[in-house]
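Take a careful look at the sequence and tokenised backbone pasted below. I need to know what the token row says about the fold.
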Amino acid sequence: MPKMENYLGIDIGSSSVRAVMAQEVPGEETLRVLGAIALPAEGMRRGAVVDADGVAKTLQKALSHAERMSGVSPDVIGVGISGTDIFCQKSIGVIAVGRADGEVTEEDVDRAMGEVEARVMLPANREVLHVIPKNYRLDDQKDIKDPVGMRGVRLEVESYVVGTSTAQMKGVARIFETVGTNPDFYAVEPIAAAEGTLLPKQKELGVVLIDIGGSTTSVIVFEDGELVHVAVLPVGGAHITNDIAIGLRTSVDTAETVKTLYGSALSREVGKKEEINLAEIDSHETEFVSRHHVAEIIEARAEEIFRLVNEELKKVGREGLLPAGAVLTGGGALLPGIVDLAKDVLRLPSHIGYPKPQGGIVDQVDSPDFSSAVGIVLLARDRSRMGGKSGLLGESRKWDMPEWAGSLGKKAQSWMGKFLP
């Protein structure tokens, strides 16, 4: 009987750490979700690690809960990398076809992809995580999607190189050194969110995925089934909360509750006479505030986010030109009125994107804020099936960690042993 593989996806975001344990069962098309948890992230700022010990404590709790709830240990561990240091740029790799008869093999494609990374000009403080092919050229034949089996002499591949800063990777590696485990691969958060949310038809038609997180908003664009653009904006849901706190002269915690219970991204849908009794939220407060005023505060910041997204679309000539529209995911997508505001600002059809349906305890992950974590376990499954490669668009490499981090997996007798009683 084929072995049931267990996959753990860990999404370390600006405001929370999410872990999803899923199992691939032979004969079942979807993964079976076995456990999931979301915890507030300590020590993160704009997707970057600023306090490794704080993040490690949160990660310990998340990992312990995932294993307790699922009752299994993972065979493959994937980690999502977020933050404004994420970059995406084009590069070209060129090789001579290896076989004497000129037939292109998988090895030729792999060599061409390796040339892409070797040729890309990056500062010393940046690390490549994904090399994603856009199209191939074989001699004079252009725009080839899959050259394997074709015949020629010169193979060229145009690819996107996606990665993050070395400092970010070292920060994450130190966290896993602390918790005593060694991830099998890393994926940048926008790619993970796209894998967890978008359908092939949407990518073919043309779509932008907007993942509104705590301190950042990720933007990833597809057209004709190909990656077009990736960007991370330094603004997210926490900025809306801060704006409310300043506008109402109240605490951040109270502002977050006001946003969650009474917030709307469309002020025109909120009556001007509606009021919020802050005393019901915080016993130290005594005032009534206008719910319409709160909506105006939220709308102003949310509109700014979408205008910044529109600027990214302008950069790649896709402003108002994506038939599959805008898909909103992440915790910020749950804000009432956010979809209609996106339609107004982006002039695109818009809707909320939920994680792709899976089996098991699906209610644990059926929310936009789990899109990235679900995407990571899907990438882990594809990586396992393809012998170390990601099935999303191209290769998702394991980051070459330094020796002090890479040896952790060999030393650990049980990756979760230190957390369990």
Summary: The chain has three domains: 5-84+167-193+355-409, 87-163, 200-354.
